[in-house]
Design a protein that fits this description.
It is a single chain. The protein is globular, with a radius of gyration of 21 Å. The termini are far apart. The longest helix is centred in the middle third of the chain and has 31 residues. The chain contains 19 helices and no strands. The chain is an all-alpha fold.
């Protein structure tokens, strides 16, 4: 089966079924047919797509498959450009479905679209709300597969933008990992100015991430609770890229590495235990400068603000319900506020202990 012709046509058919009823309601017989097809051999795009559709049946329904990340990673764009395209898709979806029975009220729609357009602009380095671009894909087949990376568990309108927002968070932390690793390499090369520039860029990326919370905040708690009943097992606590960002800043304390925070990301835990270089090590090996220390403090503070906003939003949406990744929910996020990226580095406010 040709991945970009027959495979794409089949995936579109399957995605239509998913969006009609929600992946949680797909008949067992239909899933068995897809499983048999997968076993007969498929191209990489169709295989990644089917792995996400069949994740619940396979007993491995986690955040990575809920967000169709295996397929998204095959699109072949840099994370900033890809995040802009995903959020532009939110604008398209919201405007196309405006006025439908399950769509948001006009004032909520305007707010959601405004924040989404601002996010697109930030990804593209623009300071004004842009006309959301949907061009610039590497090729037509990739464009087709990109549309198939929303596989909701329900038929609720808001789940589409929720999935896209979480995908954008993954891409945001992909950029942050690159920034922190580049800052580490710059310090090892004796380029303090270069390290500061990378850290300052990371701070602006965190500001962009705050926009994603504003977009999610336009969703009602009722809508979230409705589709969340079918996302058990998939949680942002399983984010590989977020944990890689944390490890790139500095190896976490032993108790955190051994906790549920890293249970869902075994590959990242293994990377941390392997003892590679990180920014904290590099900072301890160079003479501190005022500019470098200030840049590290800004990054730590931006991360703390991001976590505090996450906790506040979760408190409104979740209440006292547990998290979908088997955490305690809001109390778990409250505990995370005590965690610091640069706990080994002296002179960084709140980081040393």
């Amino acid at each position: 089966m040709d991945d970009h012709t027959d495979g794409l046509a089949l995936a579109r058919h399957v995605a239509a079924r998913v969006r009609a009823v929600g992946s949680a309601a797909l008949p067992a017989s239909f899933l068995a047919e897809l499983d048999a097809l997968r076993d007969r051999g498929t191209g990489p795009h169709l295989r990644a797509f089917l792995d996400s559709v069949l994740a619940r049946r396979d007993g491995r329904f986690v955040n990575r498959h809920y967000l169709a990340l295996p397929l998204l990673e095959l699109v072949g764009l840099d994370p900033d450009r890809l995040a802009a395209l995903l959020m532009a898709d939110v604008v398209r979806h919201e405007l196309h479905n405006a006025g439908s029975p399950d769509s948001p009220a006009p004032d909520v729609l305007r707010k959601r679209v405004r924040h989404a357009r601002r996010f697109v602009g930030r990804c593209l380095g623009e300071t004004v709300e842009p006309a959301c671009p949907l061009d610039g894909l590497p090729d037509a087949p990739a464009a087709g597969w990109l549309d198939l990376t929303v596989l909701p568990v329900s038929t609720r309108h808001d789940e589409h933008f929720f999935i896209r927002s979480l995908q954008c968070h993954e891409l945001t932390f992909t950029v942050l990992v690159a920034d922190v690793r580049a800052a580490t390499a710059a310090l090892r090369a004796g380029d303090v100015d270069g390290a500061v520039a990378h850290l300052d860029h990371a701070g602006t990326v965190f500001e962009r991430a705050q926009l994603l919370f504003r977009i999610v905040a336009t969703m009602s708690a009722d809508a979230f609770a409705d589709f969340r009943t079918h996302t058990e097992g998939a949680s942002a606590v399983q984010s590989d890229q977020y944990k890689r960002f944390e490890v790139a800043c500095g190896r976490p304390r032993a108790e955190r590495l051994a906790s549920m925070a890293f249970d869902g990301v075994p590959a990242v835990r293994a990377e941390a235990l392997a003892g590679g270089d990180d920014l904290s090590r590099a900072l301890l090996d160079v003479p501190p400068t005022e500019r470098l220390t200030a840049a590290v403090r800004r990054l730590e503070a931006a991360h703390q603000r991001w976590k505090a906003t996450h906790r506040s939003l979760a408190a409104r949406m979740l209440g006292d319900r547990p998290g979908s990744g088997y955490s305690s929910g809001v109390p778990y996020l409250g505990e995370c506020l005590r965690n610091r990226l640069f706990w080994r580095v002296g002179g960084v406010d709140g980081a040393a202990s």
